[in-house]
């Protein structure tokens, strides 16, 4: 890069013999450098070149502004989406955990169900006892009636014999 040699001469004394040139470029400019010197198509974030062919140290840094902005915007979008997903997952985890805890603390059978069942059993026993009491009373009445009928029949048979 001829520009590098000129810049080296200009900045060598200023930096005490160490040269680093920083060039901020648009995508089209950095894509042209990328194609010319590295045979790669398209823009990139950063390119570096030695200040001269005999100098192995870093001499020129070329930063692609647009590509860097796009990469930064994409990274920001990924970060925002990740944060949103984490927040939503945390909310869903909280709701699921609370529901699970509520169900775990709930009895297998609700107390209201046990109370209702108990009332139904008591009511059933009361009705059965009443039916048995009514049946016993009817049996006593039937025995009395049978005794009276038997007495009438005996009386009639005695009258017929006599």
Taking Cα atoms only, what radius of gyration do you get, to the nearest Å?
52 Å
| Secondary-structure arrangement, i.e. CATH architecture of the largest domain | 3-Layer(aba) Sandwich
- What order do the helices and strands follow? HEHEEHH
CATH fold topology of the largest domain: Collagenase (Catalytic Domain)
Properties at a glance:
4 helices; 2 domains; 162 residues; mainly alpha; single chain; Collagenase (Catalytic Domain); three-stranded mixed beta sheet
How do the strands and helices of this protein lay out in sequence?
Layout: H1 2-11, E1 21-25, H2 27-38, E2 46-50, E3 58-64, H3 65-105, H4 111-161
Parallel strand pairs: 1-3
Antiparallel strand pairs: 2-3
Describe what this molecule looks like in 3D.
There is one protein chain. It contains four helices and three strands, in the order αβαββαα. It has two domains: 2-71, Metalloproteases ("zincins"), catalytic domain (Collagenase (Catalytic Domain)); 109-162. The chain has helices at 2-11, 27-38, 65-105, 111-161; strands spanning 21-25, 46-50, 58-64. The longest helix has 51 residues, at 111-161. The chain has a three-stranded mixed beta sheet with strand order 1-3-2. With 162 residues, the chain is mainly alpha-helical. The model is unreliable at 1-15 (pLDDT under 50). The chain is rod-shaped, with a radius of gyration of 52 Å.
């Amino acid at each position: 890069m001829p520009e590098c040699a000129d810049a080296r001469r200009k900045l060598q004394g200023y930096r005490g013999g160490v040269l680093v040139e920083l060039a901020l470029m648009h995508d089209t400019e950095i894509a042209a450098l990328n194609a010319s010197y590295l045979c790669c198509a398209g823009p990139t974030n950063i390119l570096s070149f030695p200040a001269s062919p005999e100098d192995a140290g870093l001499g020129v840094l070329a930063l692609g502004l647009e590509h860097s902005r796009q990469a930064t915007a994409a990274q920001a979008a990924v970060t925002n989406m990740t944060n949103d997903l984490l927040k939503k997952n945390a909310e869903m985890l909280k709701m699921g955990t609370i529901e699970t805890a509520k169900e775990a603390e709930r009895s297998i059978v609700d107390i209201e169900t046990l109370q209702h069942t108990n009332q139904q059993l008591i009511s059933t026993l009361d009705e059965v006892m009443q039916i048995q009491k009514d049946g016993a009373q009817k049996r006593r009445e039937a025995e009395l009636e049978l005794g009276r009928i038997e007495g009438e029949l005996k009386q009639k048979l005695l009258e017929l014999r006599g």
